[in-house]
Amino acid sequence: MNITISITDDHPIVRDGLQRLVEMQPHLSLLGMYANANQVMAGLKIRQPDVLLLDLHLPDKSGEEIVPLIRKDYPDIKIIMLTANDNIHSIKMMMNKGARGYLLKTSDQALLVQAIEEVYNGNIYISPEIQQKLNQAVLQSKMDASVNSELTNRELDVLRLIAEEKSSKEIGEILHIGYRTVENYRQLVMQKLGAKNMVGMVKKAILLGILKD
Question: HEC profile for 46-100?
Fold first, then answer.
């Protein structure tokens, strides 16, 4: 098995380090090295690697822009994003755009070689620390959805008015309900959000995305 590799990164020290790594592996061979998006697009017209290691942030184009172009013109190239960016939105976006792998530049050499082999064989590879963040994001999303589904429309109305610093008397007048009913809603919402007081309840609601900061 011989896997051809091209590298695109605007930092010479990163390119040199990746070059040494590739050259140390008997089953990997370096096909090209590029410093920006224009260079890699020009280089791909001449020769296409099996796997392209691509930085997310290049001086002339972002990964969001260049990955769809590469996927359109060279669908057989497997793209691995190699970046310092561990933002969940960026990870999901790049995988949706067609990247086959996502690794942080802090990953060790063994993981990078494993990622190259995995995507070459048609699999998707996400480094363990990134996968953990994705799993946590999915869990948090489910928790948020659960909390939102638990709060009734009236409870949400009371919560929003509390966030606007309305008193129980004012909330009752606005919603046309009694003072004690408002107090009951306060306690119910606080209990559902797992908060100890009104301030904590509002902070938790903002954290969960129920209220806007």
Answer: HCCCCEEEECCECCCCEHHHHHHHHHHHCCCCEEEEEECCCCHHHHHHHHHHCCC
Question: For residue range 115-165, what is the model confidence (pLDDT) as tens digits?
Answer: 999 999 999 998 877 777 666 655 555 555 445 547 888 888 898 899 888
Backbone torsions φ then ψ of 52, nearest 5 degrees? -115, 120
Instruction: Give residue 94's region: left, alpha or beta (phi > 0; psi -120 to 50).
Output: alpha
Nearest one of 47, 88, 39 to 66, comparing CA atoms: 39
Give residues with Cβ within 8 angstroms of 143, minimum separation 6. Answer: 208
**Strand, helix or coil for residue 196:** coil
Tens-digit pLDDT profile for residues 120-130 = 999 999 887 77
pTM reported for the whole predicted model? 0.64
